[in-house]
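Here is one chain, start to finish.
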Amino acid sequence: MPVAYEFDPDLVIIAAGFDAAEGDQLGGCFVSPSCYAHMTHMLKSLANGKLIVCLEQGGYNLRSIARSALAVTRNLNGETPPRMEDRKATYSGITTVQKVASHQSKYWDCLYPKKADEGRLVAVDV
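Its structure:
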C-alpha cells in the first residue's frame, strides 16, 4: 500500500479474476474470501474511495469465485471485512518481497530494503 499511496491515483480499477482463491486447484495460492475483503477494504482508502471492480477471466472453481466475489461485494457495500486467520509467511515469500522492494526502491521514496530479522518480517520454514 505505501507505493499506492505515493502514486496517489484518481481512480482504482481492480481486474478480479479470483484464480488465487483458496479452493482453486490451478491457482494454488490459497487467498481466502476474508483476505479478498481486506484487500478491497485497503484499496478503498485510495482515490477518495473511487473503486471499480471488474470480474475478469480467471478462477476455475465456481464455488471459490462465488465466495470470494461475495466477500468483495459485501465490503464494497460497507460491511466490515471478517477477521482473518493468522498465517505465517514462508521464507521464500519474504525473500521475494524483499527482492521486489529492493529493485523498486530506486523508483519509490516509500520503499527501502529491509532485513527479515528487523521485526516486521519473520520467516518460517514450511
